[in-house]
Amino acid sequence: MALEVNDSNFDEIVLKSDKPVMVDFWAEWCGPCRMIAPAVEEISKEFAGRIVVVKCDVDNSIGVASRFGIRNIPTVLFFKNGMVADKQVGAVPKSNFVNKINNLLQ
Questions:
Q1: Catalytic-labelled residue, pool 23, 33, 40, 73
Q2: How many independent structural domains does the chain possess?
Q3: What confidence score (pLDDT) does residue 1 get?
Q4: Which residue of 33, 46, 59, 70 pairs with 26 in a disulfide if CB–CB is 3.0 to 4.6 A?
């Protein structure tokens, strides 16, 4: 299951992770965010132990959202070694996320 992150724990969980991290920036009212939510949960199970999957509610984490320039949601950022390594904006098929994750794991 994807972890919840916010302004207070983002750095500890995402930036200091020794594994690649997939961060789903979303909001409760966002239809496309709800569309990709099942894929995000599936990925968190399928890649358990190899990557960390987290969700960040932009309405409750304004500091993190502005720090990473999140203007449209859903936006998924992929972190490796504490740095943004890839980005996906908008609702896309699960395979798009899996391809980006596989690239990170190489």
A1: 33
A2: 1
A3: 85
A4: 33
